[in-house]
Amino acid sequence: MTDTMSVPNGWVCLYPQVSSLIEDNRSTSQTVTMSLDNRGLAYADGFFTTMGVIDGLILWSDYHYQRLVSHAEALQLNINSEELLAVLQLYAQQLEQGMLKLIVTRAAQNVRGYGYTPNANGSDCEIWLKATAMRVSTALQLSLPNGNLVPIQPNASAICLASQIACLPPPLAGLKSLNRLDNVLASGELQRIKAEPLASNLASTLGEGLLRDMSGQWVEGTMSNVFYQLAEAPLSESKTASSVHKDNENYLTTGQWYTPSMAQSGVAGVMRQVIIDALSTTQYPVIIRSLRDEDLPKLTQLFFCNALRGIMPMSSLTLLSGDVVDFESA
C-alpha cells in the first residue's frame, strides 16, 4: 500500500478529475452530491460495472476494460478506457479486498429533454465510483481449462419467476445499462417468495430466479447469467440428475454447456464471457442456444454466474407449474 492515496467513503466523482489522479498518483476527488439534472438519474442514460477486488487486483480486469470500450461505443460516450482502468487499479490497490462499483453517465446537455448534441468523439461523461470493503469469497475455487481460477459457491436451488425482462433493440441488448427496472421487479418477486411462510423449506436453499424475456425465452437470473446442460429426453424418476452430476474438478469440462443469446435481452456478463472463452478450445465449447419452456424438464445441470460470486451451481429448479427438476440426488 502507498500513503499517497486513500479509499474514499461513499461515492466520488472521478471525472473530470481522472487526469490529476494519474499525474499525481493520489486521490484529489471529493465526495459530492449528484445533481438532479444528472442524465443517469433522469433517463438512465449510462451504464455501470461492478468489479471484485482481491489482493489489490481487479478480478477479470481485461473483461471490464472491454466492457468500458464496448459500452462507450454503443452509447456514444467519450471515455478514455485505458486511463480510467489505471485509476480503478489505484483504488483497487488501496482497497485490497472488496468491490468497486463504477457508474458512467452522459454529462448534462444544453438540448432540452432526451436529446443530446452529437460529437465525433462521443459525449462528455460523468464518472462515479464507490469502493466497498467486503469479503470476496475464495474458499472454493474451480480451475478453468486455461488455468484461471474462479470461485464456485455451494449448491443452491433456483425457481422460475413470473416476472419478465424487456426485449431491446440491437444497440442496447446485452449492455449493463442503468435501466434495470425489470431486474428490480424480478428481484422483488424472488424476495417475496423467500419470505412466504409456506415456502420456508424452499427459501432456505433458494439462491436465484430464472427469468424470461417478453418473447418467452428463458434468458438469465435476476443478477446473473445462466448456463445449462440437456438430456436427450426428460429425466425419469429412476434416472435423476445424480447419474449425470459432475464433481467440481470436471464440472465445466464434462458434457455440453449452453447459454442463452444476449442478442435481444439480458446482460452479457463478464463471468459469462470468461467461461465462454475458457471453454472455447476444449472438446465442448459453449454453444449459444435459446432456453425454451420445453427444454426445462430436460435440464441435467444448471448454474448461474456473475463477476463477484463466480459460479453458482443449482441442485434443482422449480418450474412455474410447481414441478421440480432435480440436478442431484436428494
- Please state the CA-atom Rg, rounded to the nearest Å: 21 Å
- The dominant shape is globular
Q: State the helix count.
A: 7
Number of strands: 16
Helix content: 10-25%
Q: How far from one another are the termini?
A: 48 Å
Indicate the structural class. Answer: alpha+beta
Q: What kind of sheet is the major sheet?
A: 7 strands, mixed
Mean pLDDT: 86
Compact overview of the structure:
With 330 residues, this protein is of the alpha+beta class. It has 7 helices and 16 strands. The chain has helices spanning 18-24, 39-43, 61-75, 81-95, 181-195, 200-203, 270-278, and strands at residues 11-15, 46-54, 57-58, 98-106, 125-133, 141-143, 149-151, 156-165, 206-213, 218-221, 225-230, 258-259, 287-288, 299-306, 310-318, 324-326.
Helices and strands in order:
Blueprint (H helix, E strand, L loop, with lengths): L10 E5 L2 H7 L14 H5 L2 E9 L2 E2 L2 H15 L5 H15 L2 E9 L18 E9 L7 E3 L5 E3 L4 E10 L15 H15 L4 H4 L2 E8 L4 E4 L3 E6 L27 E2 L10 H9 L8 E2 L10 E8 L3 E9 L5 E3 L4
Parallel strand pairs: 8-9, 8-15, 12-13
Antiparallel strand pairs: 1-5, 2-3, 2-4, 4-5, 6-7, 9-10, 11-14, 14-15, 15-16
Textual characterization of the structure:
The structure is a single chain. This protein starts with 10 loop residues before the first strand and ends with a strand. It is globular and about 55 Å long. The model is unreliable at about 20-30 and about 235-245 (pLDDT under 50). A hairpin with a 4-residue loop joins β9 (about 205-215) and β10 (about 220). By secondary structure, the chain is of the alpha+beta class. The strands form 4 sheets. Strands 8, 9, 10, 11, 14, 15 and 16 form a 7-stranded mixed beta sheet that branches. Strands 1-5-4-2-3 form a 5-stranded antiparallel beta sheet. It contains 7 helices and 16 strands.
